[in-house]
Amino acid sequence: MLKEQVLTYAYILLYIGLSSGQIFFNKWVLSSKEINFPYPLGLTLLHMVFSSMLCFVLTKVFKILKVEEGMTTEIYATSVIPIGAMFAMTLWLGNTAYLYISVSFAQMLKAIMPVAVFILGVAAGLEVMSCRMLLIMSMISFGVLVASYGEINISWIGVVYQMGGVVGEALRLIFMEILVKRKGLKLNPISLMYYVSPCSAICLFIPWIFLEKSKMEAHGTWNFQPLVLTLNSLCTFALNLSVFLVISHTSALTIRVAGVVKDWVVVLLSALLFADTKLTVINLFGYGIAIAGVAAYNNLKLKKEASRASVDDSQHAQSEQPDKIHFEEPRCVMLDYSFAEAKVCIIMPFYGWLQKLLHYGSFNMPVWS
């Protein structure tokens, strides 16, 4: 048991380290005069080609990893291709933003992600507007605005690129939710990379030909350092593999919590590693407000998922034994973040009585706050 816990924390630390390191690595490759590779589109394309090749070798040649079955032409055309296109857009615009703004400010702008996801989710019919959710979205937006106000060297071009990346990521998450809820297909990170990476590579290759290929040829940058770029691509693949390891040993929720910790690590360390990063009190104050809003958003989503799961379980049990009323003692549904011993406990004190009401007639299950 102790060995498993140690291994779990090791995987989480590996994810935080690789995720933070990859951000710094990309920034260094794109902005360093020694590497001389200011081509975010080309770098992202290289990552996707490298991931596609490694996924194929590991799953089809050596068969170390297994790709989940169930993919059809219809699902690939209607879900995987849009996901791949949005993923390519996210990485491309996000890496381009590093040419104009600091790493820490880019991370602060990414905190607006839940707002974009929620707005698009409402438009797609996947989310429902509520006063509490509106308050949380306002809190996150206010925090990001304060953090932006405190930025000393702000570049609006960089902000536009970063926000474009946020919109792309929000669309990708919406398509992912549609893939799971409406298509009924669940893919682990390795399977997702196997299907999405080639599609993303094609989506990146077309604009690369028109936007960066001629520039690279004109500046003679085909004489890049292959070892550095290969190592950078390998780190990207290792990061995706670490996500697979963390989820397989804990849950997707752990990635969310670890991601918040990673964001703070990136913000603070970037001030020490890069000369263009100058943090202010207003920066940190605004980012703290935004992160608090993100935590409230995750907590509310978690409660809704737990309440929905409890209703589904009770209805399933009643469908199997329709003539028998089963009373349960009040129970506590414990959802473990498995990180820093942070836990969320949702108490449902009248669960047994609600089951009785559900059995005799229609009853709307409330959502506890």
TrEMBL record:
Membrane topology category: Multi-pass membrane protein
Subcellular location as annotated: Membrane
Main location: membrane
Domain Sugar phosphate transporter: 12-298
InterPro entries given in the database record: EmrE-like, Sugar_P_trans_dom, TPT_transporter
Recorded superkingdom: Eukaryota
Coiled coil: none
Keyword Ribosomal protein: no
SUPFAM superfamilies attached to this UniProt entry: Multidrug resistance efflux transporter EmrE
Name this protein carries in UniProt: Sugar phosphate transporter domain-containing protein
Organism: Acer negundo (Box elder)
